Amino acid sequence: MSALLELDGIAIHYGGNIVLSGLALTVGSGEIVGLLGPNGSGKSTVLNAVTGFAPLASGEIRFDGQRIDRFSPQRIAQLGIRRTFQLPSMPARMSVLELTMAASSERHGIGAALLRGPAMRALEQKTRDRARALLDELKLAAVAHLPAASISGGQKKLLGIACAMMTEPKLLLLDEPTAGVHPNLRGELVAELRRIHRLGVTLMVIEHDMHFIRELCDRCVVLDRGAAIANCKPAELERNRRVLDAYLGRAHGRRSLEAS
Fold first, then answer.
1. Which of 150, 144, 154, 152 is nearest to 179 (CA)?
2. Domain coordinates of the chain in residue numbers?
3. Stretch 232-236: mean pLDDT, rounded?
């Protein structure tokens, strides 16, 4: 399996606060990797660094063999990296369908700008059909006409995935996709992410729901205080004392991880 994403000794400092400290992490093409750790361990900062929103103090980030840590967020996105957010903010004046259509990479760039008349209408219809199909798959068809800002928090998470998939990414970074999602929909979300994975998309997922991690991920990387303390299969987490101490706290012990 070839490396798609490589973080080589990256460090990020905010003033005197060290958020990431010499972190090394590799995600292979076609993997589903869980990124775990207690609050403040640096998980979301990793996603910010990969997408160009957090400058490095040192180290390098490579995507598909190309160094990207000096690229703008827009250029990184054009290479095929997309992300969702833990607390997505949605516009009040666009419907769910309009926002999903607006995310399409086909509607941007010089080629689309030159289209006129029937060609433009054909592109709009193709984009609309793709957006409707994604919304249907993510159980959002019933709210497609509603303002994007008015839907529930869980639905906003799903809408973020739909918008990301409109760009046909190579790597999709998900920041706590189950937070705010109704428990009855979590199994469907696992199935949808596996479907996305079968399309050839590599996934890296920040998540606290251990059942979700066990069902979805091939491998887990656990962070603590900005450094990786474990790199293993989900089933091996409950036997890792460093994970138990850092991620759950010493007072919780093994039983908490097994029950989570």
1. 154
2. 30-49+72-90+151-259, 91-150
3. 92
